[in-house]
Amino acid sequence: MPLIALAATAIGTGVSVYGQVQQGEAAQRAAEYNNQLAQQEAHNTELEAAEQINRQRLQDRHSLGQIRNQIANNGTLSTEGTPLAILGESSANFELSIQDAVRRANQQAAAQRQQGAMDLWQGDQQQNASLIGAIGSGLKGISALGSQYDTDVYHGTLKDTFGLYKPRTG
After folding, report:
1. Which residues of the chain have pLDDT under 50?
2. pTM for the model
């Protein structure tokens, strides 16, 4: 019977250690997957922003063309003076709007990438914690095995195979 108890303790310890290691590895795999999703989302944000910027630039060119046509329909030259200033200011405002959109998209993509990096860090921390837990479980199991062995040898239910209770001489 004592051997069965020792075997059960050893098996239980092994299963606990294995489970904790697997839990850490699963956390790391989940973190890597979440990071991949965050990286892809950031890339998609950048692609979408680039497409929106292209569309906005086309729209801005169309708007500037309409302003030029209005100026020309009034019989005014658009190459000097107030009409040129109007065109320049309109163009600058359009470009400023585009630059604001670029900045927002870049910030959003950077935040998404940072979230992916944070997921990796958290996964690494969980994996390390699980490994430390597994080591602790292993040491606790070894201690329990030793204690159980010691008790069984002391009570005579198990042979003293390690010579723990040899009589001292001298």
Report:
1. none
2. 0.66
| Residue 129 to residue 4: CA distance in whole angstroms | 31
In this prediction, residue 168 carries a pLDDT of: 57
Report the distance separating Cα 34 and Cα 40, nearest Å: 10
> Which residue from 158, 143, 154 is spatially nearest to 9, judged by alpha carbons?
143
Cβ(9)–Cβ(86) below 8 Å: no
Give the start-to-end residue ranges of the domains of the chain. Answer: 2-154
Q: Report d(CA 160, CA 15) in Å as an integer.
A: 27
Taking alpha carbons only, the member of 52, 41, 42 closest to residue 110 is 42
User: How many Cβ atoms sit within 10 Å of the Cβ of residue 127?
Assistant: 19
Can you read off the two tokens belonging to residue 100? 């604001």
The residue behind tokens 């092994």 is 14
pLDDT value at residue 86: 79
Q: How far apart are CA 144 and CA 79, in angstroms?
A: 92
Is 118 in contact with 34 (CB distance < 8 Å)? no
